[in-house]
TrEMBL record:
It comes from Christiangramia gaetbulicola. Belongs to the universal stress protein A family. This is Universal stress protein. The keyword Protein transport does not apply. Keywords: Cytoplasm.
Length: 155
């Protein structure tokens, strides 16, 4: 195992995923890449036409810079996460699109040997209706996945 891809989202508990994934990669002597996915980014720049007499989107004049601002925030997030690991060899990758597909596509392109993800606690109903990124990746992956539980701590 020479390449470990660590998926991060904006959940505050992603720090645990980054730390534990990085520690595992170090033990394996593997290269590390942190990936974050901006899902459905194109939605923010859409200027919808009038429909059913509703002109709200046109009147609001959707800011066309929103997409580039979202990308910049995500890049800063990834850079900060990489700095936190204090290893200049850690690389980052910002993907766009459906999260599970984007992670699997980049894992294949980068030739990752292992994908590290956090599993958030969701309600059973939420999992049934929409699934989770981790479960979608597990269904379609051709490489091993290491899951780190990041449930809310109960006090």
């Amino acid at each position: 195992m020479k390449k470990v891809l660590i998926g991060l989202d904006y959940n505050p508990r992603s720090e645990k995923v980054a730390n534990q994934g990085y520690e595992l990669a170090k033990k394996l002597g593997a290269e590390v890449c942190l990936i974050h996915v901006l899902a459905d980014v194109s939605y923010y720049g859409v200027n919808y036409p009038n429909f059913m007499g509703y002109e709200g989107y046109n009147e609001m004049q959707v800011d066309l810079n929103v997409i580039s601002e979202l990308r910049e925030v995500a890049r800063n997030y990834l850079e900060t996460a990489a700095k936190h690991l204090d290893d200049p060899r850690v690389s980052t990758y910002l993907a766009e699109g459906p999260t599970s597909t984007a992670i699997l596509d980049y894992a294949k392109k980068w030739k990752a040997d292992l994908i590290v993800l956090g599993t958030h606690s969701h309600s059973v109903l939420e999992k049934v209706l929409m699934g989770t990124t981790a479960s979608r990746i597990l269904e379609r992956t051709e490489i091993p996945v290491y899951l780190i539980p990041v449930k809310k701590e109960s006090h």
